[in-house]
Amino acid sequence: MELRFTVNGQKQVLEVEPQARLLDVLREQLGLTGAKEGCGEGECGACTVLVDNLAVNSCLVLAHQARGRSVTTVEGLAPSGKLDALQQAFIQKGAIQCGYCTPGMLMSAKALLLRKPKPTEEEIRMALAGNLCRCTGYVNILRAVQDAAGTAESGEVRKA
Amino acid sequence: MMHKFRMACPDSVAETLELLAGMEGEIAYLGGGTDLVPQMQDGRRQPDWVVDLSQIPELACIRFDGERIRLGSTATFTQIAGSALIEEQGRCLAQAAGQVGSVQIRNRATLGGNIASASPAGDSLPVLLALDAKLTVLGPAGERRISFERFQIEPGEGLRRGELIAGIDFAAGSRGHTGDGRHVPADKSDFSAGGRHPIRVSAFGKIGSRQSVTIAKLNMAAFLEMEPGEGIVVKSRLALGALGRHPFRLRNVEEEMRGRRLDDSLIVDVTKRLQEVVDGAIPGRYSQTYKRQAIRGLAADVFGDLQQQVSVEKASSSNGPDQGGGKEEQEIGC
Amino acid sequence: MAVRGNLEDSENRHETAGPEKLKQVGRSYPLHDAEAKATGRIRYTGDMSLQGMLCARILFSPLPHARIRRIDAAGALALPGVYGVFTHENTPDVLYNSQVWYAGQEALKDERLFPDTVRYIGDRVAAVVAANEQTAAKALGLIKVDYEELPAVFEAEQALRTDVPVPALAPWASPFFSKEISVGHVDECFEAPDAVVIEDRVETPKIHHAALEPHVCVAYPDHNGKITVLTPCQILYSVRLVVATVLGLPFNKVRVLKTPMGGSFGGKQEVTLEPLAAFFALATGRPVKIQLTRHESIISTRTRTKTIGYVRTAWDKAGNLLARDLKTVIDTGAYTSNGAIIGMAMGKKAFRLYRIPNQRYRTESVHTNTPVAGAARGYGSPQIHAITEINIDHAARRLGIDPVKLRLRNLVRPGDLDAGGGPPLGQAQIIACVAEGAKAFGWAQRRDAPHGTGRFRRGAGMACATHSNGYFGGFQDFTTMTLRMLEDGSMILNSGIQDLGCGTVTSMKQIIAEVMAISPDRIEAPEGDTETSPYDVGSQASRVTHVAGACALHTAGKLKEKLCREAAKLLECAPDEVILQSERIRSAAHPEKDCSYGEMVSLIQEKNRTEIIITETFQAQDNPGSYGADFVEVEVDTWTGLVRVVEVLAVHDVGRAINPGFVRGQIYGGVQMGIGYALTEDIAVDPVSGRAKGDRFSRYHLVNMPDMPPVRVILIEKGGDLGPFGAKSIGEIATCPTAPAVVNAVNQALGTNLETLPLTPERILRALACQ
User: Catalytic residue at C732?
Assistant: First the structure.
């Protein structure tokens, strides 16, 4: 079956099996291996990409459901080679350790900032609730998103 | 790995029905795919046909026809949770939608899909009972309307071959609407209490194993209609989920609430009754001990929310019907 | 939701180490591969595709214990695209143990590629190697297996009962390992008339490591009979040892390359998929990839041991810990793995945290028909500290003494020896951790604050822990490194290091850069390759920073000596008059004749006919304790049993932070893992069916972002031990104190004595109902 869609700004026309998931096509047919499969059931978020600027688990979407849509993967975050503010913040704030969750984290954060450029801490936490990380305890990820959004607080620690 | 299947990607409902008529073997409808895709991936489901409903504009709408709120079956939980219309006219549905899975899941998962999956713990299902929602089912024999409650439990009333759920609707629930579909002009209410509008509130709550992205161990939705002066419950619908195969209405408890004030003593009594309901629903089950305790917390959350809404409604009752606000769009799609 | 503090932690570091002014050590550089990870450019093993690569999928046993009568693979073999079906009938029957890391290491060998009797749900029955995943998966479904079901045992204490006739445990006895360490006069102390005796039974669950990257491996043969294994592993030389042993190959015909690690936490420390992939690649003559799903990773690889701990302590009224009697029963699952030595690892920790003159530790390890336990972050420390620290709090309640005061009275002090006979504790700064932490946390106020009497109750708790710094005192521990300076002044470090995402590569660069007066980004430090890297014991036992880091320091020191010696000939001065500064070199006498490192190295090659290269072996000479104390506040919903961790303060004695950003990163992640250990994580083997209930992420809950509390970190950096610049380990100790601190906080909030982890809502409500 023919699939026409846009990936990272590039129009694609591919021959795709009906049972292929969006994740499979991105990774295997287009060589975009940034999105990962961490659980296959939409719990971990490592496969998160944007479809028309909304974050989705690409392991739960059949590729043909993306027909006519615009898909953005982590490889599309820095189209001209210049890193996105989120990527820079993730690097600088220590939000990356093993890095396996990073592409999905970045895409969920990107979807949030596209919709809400100055999110509150609670909004960031809820927006990234579907992205699991085992290395960082999320502490520096939260900090990086706040930094990229320009909402990072400075100064003394507030007691909870 | 998925079993091979054929896929249809219709653009309209008419085209869908036409395609369905010609299909043989097992047919699976694909909405958001959040349940179906992993089920196919691990082989639990092996349909011959997959019909993708996710790009049919007429199925993705949320609108208000003056009496009822109408949702297309592929309205996503993100759309529902973010809809000012739903927030105003069926708040418990917006609440439940906002607590389904994660952002990524809500961006794909649909109300129709939640109904079709019929998971015992599906968060939207007790809400549809509390709102007394009706389904519009289209099939070879034309349109069929059926209450969600009957659809999910009556033998033979579920989806028949060649049918699909087109829409879900429920009576607008804000002040200014009767709750049974009739519109009441602000200046000519037929409500007895001095011509003032009844107060209608609804709430949803769930208990999972963490704060978010969790399957409900218990969920509950409540709708109350109250006489505005004394705050007496005139009508109510209460539904519980994750206690058996389907969520269910608690008609006896609803009856007992009628005529009472929404105060702490009512909550205490209702909680006691809810514990009995748990005992009756899952006697001897390992989870019974936990759920009969935990439902106390759930009842406190849901009824506390209702109380709070009532006090807000009362405070603003002099300002006439609430026009909503905050959220951007009123209607989606269609 | 309640208002939270932000997660910004102060730059809280308590340093007294060393008078020297450090330029590179102590700075928080980003990870060396952070940009590749942030752009998706980095290729993990699962992202790799080789010409002609085949896919293997494994058929896992659906039964907890069964003899395989017959396997009919005809249907699978007939499927186009299937290159082979492998079972116990056509694969080596060499027995091995997945955790051995050096040749000659003694361990029960009871695992083989495919057994003829499966011992747990998740054991390997067969595998299909096919052109693609779809074909492999389809072929798996066509394999017919005739099983003869056998009785099974799922609980450790049942496996210990002699009246249960269980062939599952054959051919070894149950327990298959037991040992005792004892000092002083334990029994007498408990019999003393005025002793206050506190007794507990603590149970810790089997958990899944939950690295976001599920297990994966690629292997390919070359034209000369050599097999190359690409694997995100922790111990290259362990992989080589096991693969070569199982396949019957010389060590130099097995090449193991460490690929980017998508998280491990011990889960990828043991050898699981590698011998399979290597065998399939040899058998088919093609590259083969094995990629597990999450479900498969959870049930079929490794877990943390389930441990039941019996602990009795004897105290005097003033709160002096007179004696402790400890016993652990360790459920290692269906295969031995590290089931014997982990019991000892637990026991040794028990002698290194408190001054206890009389102590006995006994351990028994058993097999059960459940998923296999093995290495897991902390290697027994989270288990033993959960057992002992819950007991200490229990004692504090009974004695009416504040838990911080009780601990301060009994904790070890800097310079103490190990009462159990292990290596000296070194600069053990646990008292500083507890004292600083209590102050910064506002312990006294929080502890005395009312818990509340309504639905929500608050409590504060804390716990301490210790962990090791390598194998010194137990096993051989050394590392060899080769360091070179090239003709442009850039450098290459060749070593067997394996970065698990913690920052090992960057840390090594910082250490070398400090010595060589060079920028870390001028150093290339590739990860291990058994064909080209010198030997390393592996990224295990919390040894990397302390031991491999010390090796980097010594090697750089030697290289600097050589550079100065050679440069001195050209600068016509004495070697000790050569000055290295900002990547330039000169003599003290003639500062105007200064040249770049590159120019000097080129000149040395041209005139002195030699290379600036050093190969150095470093042998560990100490094994001090790393120490940590976590302070936790919780809020418990007494109606639903859900616990919210409000805030965590983690204080760690790390000797010296080479890269404080990395150190904090380890602590944040360790806290997340520890909260999960305390509250939600359990693969939960059903005692009737033997099936893991928590066998996928929708049923196995890690702490996610909304549930993660703010974490503050204080680092105690007083140096003094033999690690590079005094550095000690952090990766494993980071998670050790968290779970007992959370449990102690919940018990304080509720007045309960909950002792079975995780504290699920069900367990909490049951405990409340019993009050």
Answer: yes
